[in-house]
Amino acid sequence: MAHSSLEEISAQLESPNSRDRMLALAALRDVPAADAVPLIKKVLEDEILQIRSMAVFALGIKPTDECYPILVKLLETDPDYGIRADAAGALGYLGDLRAFEALVRAFYEDTEWLVRFSAAVSLGNLKDPRAHEVLLQALDSDEVVLQQAAIAALGEIKDINSVDHILRFAQSEDWLTRQRLAEALSQLPSEKSVSALKYLEKDSHPNVAAAAKIALERLNKAST
């Protein structure tokens, strides 16, 4: 991108018009990370929450050495739980394994379910097997979305030892939970997984049945 374009975006990020600032952030999508991050930082303290949220997300997909410490600080100290959740999500996109401890802390210590949900999803994105214990605890949450996030994440980290723990959700009243289970089992090859997927293939909800069918095909392909 031409230098003048970067200057235009930089000027637009300082516009008093919030729509201009949003458009400028969107324009950074095609800008190399090294050039984009200093500009993203300009609006991390924006008065408009949606702009802050966009900026935090942008840090997750524009990895530079600066992004990790900024996101961890936001996750641990920002007064707005939406921004803390965004920071947890961005750390998952960043894929930096150093984020493991910060995400685990957020899961255990943050009082807002949205932050804990985002942390659980990102632990799956990191694909770090150390997340096993945390995610098993998330399965016992009162929040259905946290259970769903944990099931999906256990699949992402290919935690074969979790199969016995997640199979109980084949009986869940929530169809999306059953769908998440089918999707997770596609990454956890075992006889129990195949058996559960054959059961879920007959599910009354078409999305669950379709997910189970795809999962069985995936497991069959992997075993041949």
Automatic annotation (TrEMBL):
Q: Which domain of life does the UniProt lineage start with?
A: Bacteria
GO MF terms held by the record: lyase activity; oxidoreductase activity
Q: Name one GO cellular component term.
A: phycobilisome
Q: Which UniProt keywords apply?
A: Antenna complex, Lyase, Phycobilisome
Specify one Pfam family: HEAT_2
Please state what the protein is called.
Phycocyanin alpha phycocyanobilin lyase
This chain's source organism reads Chroogloeocystis siderophila 5.2 s.c.1
